[in-house]
């Protein structure tokens, strides 16, 4: 079933009081399926109130990780540049 129908079924049960048995019969599903939809909806309900914002702690941790990775990448680039310079000198002296 499309997500909109799943949400609609849970909404009808919660807001209109439609019995689960009736919804399941209409949709051709077992009650366990309906209750799994309801559980999933409640487990993810917090996302409706986040407005796309993540917690400050999560953002700070992500920013710190990005800084660490950028520093590591910079160091690798410096080492690679040194190796390339050394290689160029060796090739020039060998020729």
Written description of the protein model:
- The protein is built from five helices and no strands.
- By secondary structure, it is mainly alpha-helical.
- It is 83% helix and 0% strand.
- The protein is elongated.
- The longest helix has 39 residues, at 56-94.
- The protein has helices at 3-16, 20-27, 31-43, 46-50, 56-94.
- Helix 1 crosses helix 3 (31-43).
- It has two domains: 1-53; 54-95.
**Number of domains as seen in the coordinates:** 2
The largest β sheet comes out as: none
Large-scale geometry: elongated
Q: Which stretches are poorly predicted, pLDDT < 50 over at least 5 residues? A: none
**Which series of helices and strands comes N to C?**
HHHHH
How much is the radius of gyration in Å?
Answer: 29 Å
Helix content: over 70%
Task: Give the mean pLDDT.
Answer: 89
How many beta-strand runs? Answer: 0
Secondary-structure content class: mainly alpha
Q: How many alpha or pi helices?
A: 5
Strand content: under 5%
Distance between the termini: 72 Å
Compact summary:
The protein is an all-alpha fold. It is 83% helix and 0% strand.
Reconstruct the topology from this structure.
Layout lengths: L2 H14 L3 H8 L3 H13 L2 H5 L5 H39 L1
Features of the shown structure:
95 residues, 2 domains, mainly alpha, single chain
């Amino acid at each position: 079933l499309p997500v909109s129908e799943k949400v609609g079924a849970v909404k009808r049960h919660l807001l209109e009081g439609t019995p689960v048995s009736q919804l399941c019969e209409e949709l051709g599903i077992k009650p366990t399926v309906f209750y799994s939809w309801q559980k999933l909806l409640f487990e993810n309900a917090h996302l409706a109130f986040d407005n796309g914002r993540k917690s400050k702690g999560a953002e700070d941790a992500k920013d710190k990780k990005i800084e660490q990775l950028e520093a590591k990448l910079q160091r690798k680039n410096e080492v690679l540049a040194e190796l390339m310079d050394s290689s160029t000198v060796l090739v020039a002296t060998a020729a």
